[in-house]
Design brief:
seven-stranded mixed beta sheet, 17 helices, binds magnesium ion, alpha/beta, six-stranded mixed beta sheet, 20% strand, binds 1,4-dihydronicotinamide adenine dinucleotide
């Protein structure tokens, strides 16, 4: 499946984009190659072939990108631009992205392995909505006034108020599971609040960030406001997050790297927010229709091939319905056609990389060696492409690694329980706390469970629903801070208190 083989499946824009030479970095409004001249191969996970090359940034490129973002923030036109003008530029960017949605979805599919149809309906559409939602906040950044009295100067009068000011240069480091969408989750609030950005997409999936950079230039953002550097964690990510010219780091990725970033950031008192891993429970109560719950549970784990930070990877079903629900989820898993993301008949694509496929298969083996039963699936599918069979493990307990650790693939563990006290304890028995879903129409049981669950999002009769208006983030080791919603703006703003003696 090289470009000539898939030409009939992709738009001209996608074919032209892929046919270019080495994709450069975006620094200070210029497209430039890396100082070292090094490149990274971009691999199509469906057939393991190289589809593009991108410049691979190192410390010298990071320094240039941060300097450009610093200049644009401290001296450039961006610092003087009114909120209404930032809103207009963001709205224009959203329109351009919407107009090119199909091509973005195709490139995301070829780069990541996900379905192009899903990418257009979810990744691109939610990215467009997020930009528009955040654009609206650009004109609604408000401080507050207070009437104060000072006990040691009782005659004095003051006017006091707070101002919200953009924090400055934002380093956005994002992973490969939703490359465009997660870049936008960071970019849109940063730009709405008046920050400038250095974006580092994941080295596995850099292409839609580069395409977005082209639209940012086309929309008319001044040079240096958004800089895009591709590179791996040690060579580009680490120097970026520890750079003294960066004021805030916004990261989505593994808990392991999140901890490294937090430590590096504290050294410079750089502000940071971390959206990290999860091991989200799906809790099925025995009042609900088993087929509906099974369809929901399958969607919760198999969407995006399980490579979702809030994937419902632990299924808990009340005892009398356990066998029936697990059998139904297994039937759905067995019926899923594996195939590349441009094939509309495919229901699940490959995982993003050989590394991820090996990691997921290794976890399945660990589960089996610790005594789990494989209901369906169990390993790699085929010999070409990074496909893993949708897999369900039963006979598991809370101490097993497959129940405690994030697998980040299409692997579900299923366990029965007796009552809601027990399932609340089981659901919370992990270091993570990103999401959870409850499947039931018993109002009082649902409302008794919601406050017991230690997670940033609880869904009822749905899973992985997201909206730009709703904050998203984790309890415990699933992260610090929130993306999306009005709440996310706080992490891109400082608060300045002003006292005027009058
Ligand atoms: P990762 O956390 O290493 O990568 C995420 C981003 O961080 C990438 O852009 C990477 O280049 C960058 N990075 C890596 N090391 C860095 C460093 N020292 N300083 C600054 N940036 C750095 O994730 P990876 O290795 O791709 O996946 C490993 C596991 O992490 C997955 O199996 C999954 O469990 C979890 N993960 C969770 C995600 C989520 O959405 N919460 C997304 C991706 C991975
Ligand atoms: Mg890593």
């Amino acid at each position: 499946m090289n470009i000539s083989d898939i030409k009939h499946l992709i738009t001209d824009r996608t074919a032209k984009f892929l046919a270019r030479g080495t994709h450069p970095l975006l620094i200070d409004g210029q497209w430039v190659q890396a100082e070292s001249g090094q490149t990274i191969d971009v691999i199509n996970p469906a057939n393991e072939e190289v589809i593009a090359k991108v410049a691979s940034a190192g410390k010298a490129d990071v320094d240039k990108a941060v300097a450009a973002a610093r200049r644009a923030f401290d001296q450039g036109p961006w610092s003087k631009m009114r909120g209404a003008e930032r809103e207009r530029l963001l709205m224009k960017l959203a329109d351009l992205l919407e107009a090119n949605a199909q091509s973005f979805a195709e490139v995301e599919s070829l780069d990541n392995g996900k379905s192009a149809g899903m990418a257009q309906a979810v990744d691109v559409a939610v990215a467009v909505d997020t930009i528009r939602y955040m654009a609206g906040w650009a004109t609604k950044i408000e401080g507050a006034t207070s009437d104060i009295s000072v006990p040691f100067a009782p005659q004095a009068e003051f006017v006091t108020f707070t101002r919200r000011e953009a924090v400055g240069v934002v380093a956005a480091v994002v992973p490969w599971n939703f490359p465009l969408l997660l870049a936008v989750w960071k970019l849109a609030p940063a730009l709405a609040t008046g920050c400038t950005v250095v974006l580092k997409p994941a080295e596995q999936t850099p292409l839609t960030a580069i395409m977005l950079g082209e639209l940012i230039a086309e929309a008319g953002f001044p040079p240096g406001v958004v800089n895009i550097i591709v590179g791996d964690g040690p060579s580009a990510g680490a120097p970026l997050v520890s750079h003294p010219g960066v004021d805030k780091v916004s990261f989505t990725g593994s808990t392991e790297v999140g901890k490294l970033i937090g430590k590096a950031a504290v050294e410079n008192m750089t502000r940071f927010t971390l959206e990290l891993g999860g091991k989200s429970p799906v809790i099925v109560l025995d009042d609900c229709d088993p087929a509906t719950a099974a369809a929901g549970a399958a969607q919760a784990i198999f969407f995006n091939h399980g490579q979702v930070c809030c994937a419902g990877s632990r299924l808990y079903v009340q005892k009398k319905m356990f066998d029936r629900v697990v059998a139904d989820v297994a039937d759905i898993a067995k019926s899923m056609a594996l195939g590349h993301g441009l094939d509309p008949a495919s229901r699940m694509g490959p995982l993003v990389s050989r590394e991820q496929m090996d990691r997921v298969c290794n976890y399945i083996n660990i589960g089996m060696s610790q005594g789990a039963n494989v209901v369906t699936g169990g390993g790699r599918a085929g010999e070409k492409g990074y496909y893993v069979q949708p897999t369900i493990l039963t006979n598991v307990n809370a101490d097993m690694r497959v129940v405690q650790e994030e697998i980040f693939g299409p692997v579900l563990t299923a366990m029965p329980y007796d009552d809601i006290e027990e399932v609340a304890a089981l659901a919370n028995n992990t270091h993570f706390g990103l999401g959870a879903s409850i499947w039931s129409n018993n109002l009082s049981k649902v409302h008794r469970l919601i406050p017991k669950i230690k997670a940033g999002t609880v869904w009822v009769n749905c899973h992985s629903m997201l909206n730009p208006a709703m904050p998203f983030g984790g309890y415990k080791q699933s992260g610090i801070g929130r993306d999306l919603g009005k709440a996310s703006l706080d992490s891109y703003l400082e608060t300045k208190s002003v006292y005027i003696a009058v």
